[in-house]
Amino acid sequence: MKRVIMIDPGHGAETAGKRSPDDTLREYEFNRNVARRLVKKLQTSGFDARLTVNDDTDMPLIQRTNQARDLKWQGYDVLLVSIHANAAGNGGWSTAKGIETYTNDQAEKLAQIIQRRLVADTSLRDRGVKRADLHITRETAKYGIPGVLCELGFMTNRDECMLLKTDAYREKCATAIAKAICEHYGVPFKTSTENPQPAQKPKVAIEINGSRLPVQGYLRDGVSWLPIRAVAEAAGGKVEWCACTKQVRVNGKDVTETIENGTSYAPARELAAILGLAVEWCGQTKTVKLKKGCA
């Protein structure tokens, strides 16, 4: 029987409240980054691995689990793994920390392997394998499909939030889950060794109220990243460096930052929200369109 592994990248960009207390981390961006890494690793190891969602939209949960159900009805051996960042408290920073994995009856053994590997590789607190009335695990169980939901650290914990924003941590999570799935199915975990080249990031144009900026952003894992200072100053924002958090601040707020060739970039939606801009993506021209007074 042919096997398909469905990787679900958690919530979408517009899911309410799914962000860190300081608004520097959006859960959807973390979920999608880890999910895409995981799919690539599973494909390298020979699996038919697919994403339930290929962009940053808020696909309803039922549509996600229905994809697994339909494959099951077509005769495939299906596994569904959902990727998430955890949260606790009432909107502020929390002391809750660690990794936990939710499962249904069909995936208990796999969930134990995933949890063990994640804790060993990240050194975060082991919160255990759990059961709860979650859509992903409940609806897959109805059709005899193994369902797992991984909570990969708390974005409401200051220390873990900083970890969740790093490429190194995301790579650790994706690798640990991929190795766990390989172990469960008795498949060797493989890494790509075919003349690795630096990934070429597609460029994106930037407009503010219809005016094209003389700088460009780029696409990474389906997320547009924009040069922070150029965009913020063009929109009348204030950019500064905070020595306390060791982060760039825009209009007094920390912003998720990555550095490319000496220039700081931030996710388009996060930067736009801080600047009070509406954001629109034009796929045809590969342009991020920002508009003042419309957010």
Automatic annotation (TrEMBL):
Q: For this UniProt record, give its keywords in alphabetical order, as a comma-separated list.
A: Hydrolase
Molecular-function annotations in GO: N-acetylmuramoyl-L-alanine amidase activity
| Gene3D superfamilies in the cross-refs | Zn-dependent exopeptidases (3.40.630.40)
- CDD domains, alphabetized: MurNAc-LAA (cd02696)
Q: Which GO terms describe its biological process?
A: peptidoglycan catabolic process
Coiled-coil stretches are: none
Q: Which is a Pfam family this sequence falls into?
A: Cu_amine_oxidN1
The region called Disordered is annotated at 1-22
Cellular component (GO) terms are:
outer membrane-bounded periplasmic space
InterPro entries assigned: Cu_amine_oxidase-like_N, Mao_N_sf, MurNAc-LAA_cat, N-acetylmuramoyl_amidase_3
Give every MurNAc-LAA domain span.
Answer: 68-182
Looking up SMART domains in the UniProt record yields: Ami_3
Documented EC number(s): 3.5.1.28
Q: Does the keyword Signal apply?
A: no
Q: What is this protein called?
A: N-acetylmuramoyl-L-alanine amidase
User: Which species does this protein come from?
Assistant: Brevibacillus aydinogluensis
